[in-house]
Backbone:
């Protein structure tokens, strides 16, 4: 499993918002782009995924931007990565919680399942608040 640029930028974007928001004042996408060196176009795609996933809410207007609908301590890193990546499954036969029809007789399936469980046990142990600068 390899976390793509989209997954890394999703985490970076949410960390930036958490570090630069007082919880009431929205953080603009332009500010995030400038601070983190992420192209505005690519950031728009990532933000859209984060809004769709329920990690951010949009505030419209001249001083608009993005805020968290819930505390960073309630946002699991695994959920963020899933929203950005689609899945963290190491093989296709474990995607979407399904296994293929050959899983009962596949000699490698137990290994892949254990890798999948290990990945999720790590990323779900951390929350966004754990990644913030102290």
Residues:
């Amino acid at each position: 499993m390899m976390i793509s640029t989209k997954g890394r930028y999703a985490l970076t974007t949410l960390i930036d918002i958490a570090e630069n928001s007082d919880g009431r004042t929205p953080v603009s996408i332009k500010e995030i782009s400038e601070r983190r060196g992420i192209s505005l176009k690519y950031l728009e795609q990532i933000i859209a995924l984060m809004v769709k996933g329920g990690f951010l809410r949009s505030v419209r207007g001249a001083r608009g931007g993005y805020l968290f609908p819930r505390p960073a301590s309630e946002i699991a890193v695994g959920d963020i990565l899933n929203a950005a990546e689609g899945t963290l499954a190491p093989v296709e036969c474990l995607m979407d919680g399904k296994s293929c029809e050959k899983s009962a007789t596949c000699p490698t399936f137990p290994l892949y399942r254990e890798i999948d469980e290990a990945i999720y046990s790590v990323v779900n142990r951390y929350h966004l608040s754990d990644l913030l600068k102290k």
